[in-house]
Amino acid sequence: MIWNNVYEKGLVDVMHDHKDNPKFKGQNGWNRDGWNSITTKFNEKFPLAHFSKQQLQEKERELKGYYKAIRDSRKESGVGWNDTLCMVLAELEVWPRLIRDHPKVSKFRNRRLSHSLFFIV
């Protein structure tokens, strides 16, 4: 199955629903019960998708990487954030340095976030 914005947002939503339940969290993130529950709930939400636990874990790692790149890039001089558009803002001359220092942020140049990454970290 191929990931799209609907599935990504669905995963973020399911993880957000689980985030306050200590039964599903370990010291460094989700525990086995957490991942099993997230996988079950996600696949119930999208019965035609049927992603494996490993695929969901890999997507979470990818989304966290994007979140961290955006978070860190916003600390750079000449970089801003538009809450309404959910976009990283920077002048044209700032982007080469920004992408060099935070390569994952290049995906979000002139693109808004399609879902909230902030729930998963």
Short structural description:
The protein has four helices and four strands, in the order H-E-E-H-H-E-E-H. By secondary structure, the protein is mainly alpha-helical. The chain has one domain (5-119).
Which helices and strands, and how do they pair?
Elements lengths: L4 H14 L6 E2 L2 E2 L1 H14 L7 H21 L5 E4 L4 E4 L4 H7 L20
Antiparallel strand pairs: 1-2, 3-4
Helix pairs in contact: 1-2
InterPro entries: Myb/SANT-like_dom
Pfam families: Myb_DNA-bind_3
Protein name: Myb/SANT-like domain-containing protein
Q: Can you describe what's shown?
A:
The strands form two sheets. The protein has a two-stranded antiparallel ribbon. It has a two-stranded antiparallel sheet with strand order 3-4. It has one domain (about 5-120). The chain is built from four helices and four strands. Helix 1 packs across helix 2. The longest helix has 21 residues, at about 55-75. The protein is elongated, with a radius of gyration of 16 Å. The mean pLDDT is about 90. With about 120 residues, it is mainly α.
